[in-house]
Amino acid sequence: MTAALAPATPVLTPRAAPGSVWPASTRSSPDGDLTVGGVSLTELAERYGTPVYVIDEGEFRGRARAWRRALPDADVVYTARAFLSRAVVDWAEQEGLGLVVCSAGELELAATRGFPADRIVLHGDATSPRDLRTALRIGVGRIVLDAPGEIARLAAAATGPEPQQVMVRVRTGALPGAGESGFTVADGSALEAVGRVLGQPCLQLVGIHTCLGTSVASPEPYAFAVRRLVSFLAAVRDRYGVTLPELDLGGGFAVPYLPGDPAPAPAAYGRRIEDTLIRACAAHDYPRPRLTVEPGRSLMAPAGVALYRVLSVSRGATGAWVTVDGGMSDNPRPALYGARYAVRMVGRHSDAPARATTVVGRHGETGDVLAESVELPEDLRPGDVLAVPVSGAYQVSMASGYGMTGRPPVVAVAAGRPRLLLRRETFTDQRGRDVGL
């Protein structure tokens, strides 16, 4: 699944300081504006309206290259569900990344861009028959199997002349309570699943897959997983006489959403993973497997900035309450997970003192809260633009049609130029789906 790096592309160095929540290209101006990728955020809000999502292409590419440097002998595979568009497919291909897709839709989009099928991994926590059929038709490089039913469904569908390469997902217990899916080592189901796959002539088992969870802010759980999985690979060898050549550690690598949040650099994860892998393989006399990691949030979240306009401001004795023109329809993470963000006013300079402010969405739901106790100017008023960093992942990709407000546009910026990736969803788009009488 390896690939060469793309030709030189604008990527800002050095990287942003550890814990920074803004893209490395972010610059401030005396008039209170910010530029990202050399483009004014205020001008983007004026040109494309709000809410609008801005993606710093250079930030994405720079982070992709940082992961490839951190694990030069591994395959780095972008988790498409973080955010996918035709342009992002192209960026991933140009940077030598693979793609892990969770659905037939993501897979079809990658295929329409000519993304190499052998660098695609299909893995949904619950893979549908349509997903499997599409993967077989396109010829993806790997399919990850999570449950006994998936083994049977895939074996029944895989009727091609060559066996489909697959991986079995195994729970490591590295983060108790993290909700890992897959087969368990302790109860013997993982070894049994391996045996079932090996017994299918139409399937070729190439390795073991795992995923620790989400926003894992330390390399240590990955080291734990490596030790557990190499031990399991050795058990597979001893039981079935098969030496599996691949080990996929999944994703879940943390990014800072608020200043000071812990989030190790890719190099820190890479060093710990590599050192542990060498030691574990030596302990079990096992040949080094080919590693894969699947950063999604780690690549895309810090590249994104969401822009909103203030609709209303209420002030009280303990602080201010600000409503913006987006919310849970374009970013459900606060409602789902209690996620919180940093917020900054852009577009004008203010000498007013800062005041603790709660920023909420327009939908009036209890969980529709973007930020709490953030310091914003006391003279904040309707029409002002607020910028929210670390907004590139699991926001637009999880956006909904709630309130028929229309999903927001996405604009890429690079080298001082904006480029529209996704246009704003309109009422015409919504009406086109309504075919009832």
Name some characteristics of this structure.
single chain, 437 residues, alpha/beta, 9-stranded mixed beta sheet, 8-stranded parallel β-barrel, 21 strands, 29% helix, 24% strand, globular
Structure description:
The relative contact order is 0.16. The chain is built from twelve helices and 21 strands. The longest helix is centred in the middle third of the chain and has 21 residues, at 220-240. Helix 2 packs parallel to helix 9 (266-284) and helix 4 runs parallel beside helix 5 (129-138). It is of the alpha/beta class. The chain is globular, with a radius of gyration of 23 Å. The strands form three sheets. Strands 4, 14, 15, 16, 17, 18, 19, 20 and 21 form a nine-stranded mixed beta sheet that branches. The chain has an eight-stranded parallel beta barrel with strand order 5-6-7-8-9-11-12-13, surrounded by seven helices. Helix content is 29%, strand content 24%.
The largest sheet is: 9 strands, mixed
Whole-angstrom Rg:
23 Å
Please tally the helical runs, counting DSSP H or I stretches of 4 or more residues: 12
Poorly predicted runs = 4-19
The dominant shape is globular
Helix content class: 25-40%
Overall average pLDDT:
93
Quickly give the structural class: alpha/beta
> Kindly, what is the distance between the CA atoms of the first and last residues, rounded to a whole number of angstroms?
50 Å
A few lines on this structure:
The protein is α/β, with parallel strands linked by helices. It contains twelve helices and 21 strands. Helix 4 (104-112) packs parallel to helix 5.
